[in-house]
Design goal:
The complex is a heterodimer of chains A (about 700) and B (about 200).
Chain A lengths: L2 E2 L5 E4 L3 E19 L11 E2 L5 E2 L2 E2 L5 E9 L9 E7 L17 E6 L4 E6 L8 E10 L2 E11 L2 H8 L5 H18 L6 H6 L10 H5 L3 E2 L11 H4 L105 H43 L5 H43 L24 E8 L8 E6 L6 E4 L12 H22 L5 E6 L6 H10 L9 H24 L14 E7 L7 H13 L5 E7 L12 H6 L1 E3 L4 E5 L6 E6 L8 H17 L1
Parallel strand pairs in A: 1-10, 16-19, 16-20, 17-18, 18-19
Antiparallel strand pairs in A: 2-12, 3-4, 3-7, 3-8, 3-9, 5-6, 6-7, 8-11, 9-10, 11-12, 13-21, 14-15, 14-22, 21-22
Chain B lengths: L1 H4 L8 E2 L5 E4 L9 E10 L15 E9 L2 E6 L11 E3 L15 E6 L9 E8 L8 E10 L5 E6 L8 E10 L2 E11 L4 H8 L4
Parallel strand pairs in B: 1-10
Antiparallel strand pairs in B: 2-12, 3-7, 3-9, 4-5, 4-8, 6-7, 8-11, 9-10, 11-12
The chains are: A alpha+beta (about 700), B mainly beta (about 200).
Protein name (chain A): Export associated protein
Pfam family, one (chain A): TerD
Family (chain A): Belongs to the CAPAB/TerDEXZ family.
Amino acid sequence: MTAELVRGQNHPLSQVRLEVRISAGAPIVAGATIGDEQGQVLGVEWVAHPGAPTLPGLEVSKQAAADHRLAVDLGAMPEAVHRVSVLLALPSGVGGPVRFGAVAAPFVAVTGLDGTEVASYTITGLEAESAVIAVELYRRQDAWKVRAIGQGYSGGLAELLTDQGLSEARHLADTIDEAVSRAHSRSVAPPPPRALDGDRTRRTASPAPAQSAAPYAAQGPQDTQSSGAPEQAGPLVQGGQGAASAQPSPPYGAQDPQNTPTQAGQPDGSAPAGHCGGAAQADPSATPQPSAPAAGAPIDYSHPRRRTAAPSPAPQAAPPAGPGQAARPVAGDAGGWSMDERLYNQVWGMFEDLARSVAAYRSAVDFADSRLEKEIDKALADPRSRVGRGDAAREAARAKHAELVDQARAALDRDLSQLTAEAEVVEPALPLPYARWDNPVWHGYRVPMEMPMALRLGDLRLPESAELSIPMLVRLPLERGLWIDSGGESLDGSLLDSDELRRLAMDAAVTHAARLLAVHPAGEFTVHVVDPAGSAASALAPLVRTGVLAGPPAAGAAGVADILGRLTQRVDLVQMAVRGGAADSLPPDLDTAQQLLLVNDFPHGFDDRAVTQLRYLADEGPAVGVHLMMVADREDAAAYGPLLDPLWRSLMRLTPVPDDHLADPWVGHAWTYEPSVVPRGSQVLQQVLSQVAAARRSGNR
Amino acid sequence: MVDVSKGGTPSGSVNLTKGQAINLQKNDGGTLTAVRMGLGWQAAPRRGLFGSRTREIDLDASAVLFADKQPVDVVFFRHLVSDDGSVRHTGDNLVGGVGQGGDDEAILVDLPRVPVHIDQIVFTVNSFTGQTFQEVQNAFCRLVDETNGDELARYTLDGGGQYTAQIMAKVHRAGTGWQMTALGTPTNGRTFQDLMPAILPHL
């Protein structure tokens, strides 16, 4: 079974003869450096590249290509070699893209000779970088492992090679560029651009790696559809480029006492699609699951130690449809072990189907538009066309255009009405963690006995289907922190008063925090708040008044330092315990709950040390159950310059008002995100938090 | 011996010859909704000593979606689903010949879901590893009604040659329905991109 690695994660290699398969949306250069026990690359002869493609046990392609298969024989490596770093770079001087942010996220898979994938890694989050260390194979106690690196360099190959310790880096980078452009002049023309663009998500029939890495990727700047600000998109993409602190991190895959082993697993969003023909029957064993129990078995997403009941029976199948009629949708009509999991998969299936239906519509309209333009140009250019005939040609072209667009719209409407009917049965059936705040299920709230598999953070819409919204569900435990953006403007262009926006952002953050508290069992989720200037007192009132917080909101620089110090220490302790395989050695008084740190007014009250600690928490925290929720306007922290870019990038950006900045993992549409809000005048938040607080008190007694 | 082991062509299926076209409809005349293009091949037997050693033939099936001769989307082992969701590749097979009588790679087409401007879908098979079709035997493509498993048409390629790719067949709109045409054109290239010049004359 393939391990889908996240940045920093490693995986053992049981074979020495391997292939490293690389796929990118555009022709790229692939190479490798080999290093000694200290990780030193001793000279240019330790680099395999298009100009010198072969080293003992290693062969790379001589030219740039969208797909590579590098042959690796670790057994043939000299004894001195302890590390093989696979590097990718965009070819320079051949007129292609110059930044990885403009092409599809590169996908790297390490496979056996029979093609079985051992581990794979999608390098997300690249922006201005034009070279990247993709993965490294390294020797540890006579065994080889692969680690996902994803370290990008905006200075290109020269910077990358310099970072590898090569003094002749600049010269070697030039040599490589020259070899590539020589090969390029011999190779065939690049593939059709549309096809490249279409290659944004890969392996979607088996689960999309993009999805497991970043279920809701930020909108890439290459998307012309997006009216949103591409420059804002930059920081949203997950992971990726190198912060100073972004050294390869310890095994994320290791079991941590708080984390379910399913953290990295992301169910196949395509599988549940109830109405996409036979393709819906994706093999569940293909789901990415680094720590899967048994190959071939369906993946169990629930907590292994918390299984309380046998899988609930499958929902009744959809009743057979009458002739010429679409099947009547049924809630829970998707694969899964529990009703919650089936609904989760069904929602993801609806999300994918809507993304693809709209992609079909947009593609058809684009085609109709460009054909119309071409035909009108032709009519104008034709010297024989008299005025009258030119008009007739234009008229005919317009009629053809209208006909195709009408057909496309009819197909879209057919799909939308099916999805709308499905949403109408699914929405009321959603369990509390997936339900809107106005769903009556919240009035029957009881503190749960186990953590749900996902949480709704809001709704997603496309302009073509304003009526139809898809619940935005994120997996728990959170894989990345959240950033509630209190800057910018709202989608409809109306510049909100900045104080108003800050208030709305804090309200949204409190609502998200309340929902997180509500869906975790009593005492298993702890929320800390940093409000250095006390400016969010009124927004925080529901949390403070009901007593669900770990303590009063921390104020002032001292409060900030204290709480960051404690959480940093906690991450260190748990990491050490995990690394040493000694979870028992944790201090007995350690709070085993997941921790959420809600930060308002950043960077107010933060000194350099606190900023460093915050970045450390954002990087290392999620793997050990420490999560971050920032309520911030990036402009406020502009003084830090690019230092904080990796921080913003590592967080999932959400907005307090509707904003179209989230991309789906399949085609990358810009979706309008709208946060879940509590209906005006509703006491539901108050009631739910009171119960959470009561359960905490009785648990502590 | 893909065909023979199954006792020849299933009833109702049409054995196509190069250039031949058939209308796509259910065996009972109803409208087809989902079809599967199955592609299969076997390694040619090796002569002499160690002739029985298994060899791997890594052929990759791709489908290119065209609108008025413009390529719009491609489904292949690195982009397994067309953006519109209508065409899905079931995954890369790196060995070939594993399922005797079965398909080595399959591409599913959800016909009602094919965007209205897409008028042709061309299916190709190419050898990523550079092996030529001389090392391949019994290469075929067949179109199956995905809803009931009935084979509608099959096209078995002639013997191999010194080329690394085959343009197998196309499924294209005809009136309100769809047709399949056997193409069977040998060409060279590691990926579908290399095959574009050879595909264009067939559109």
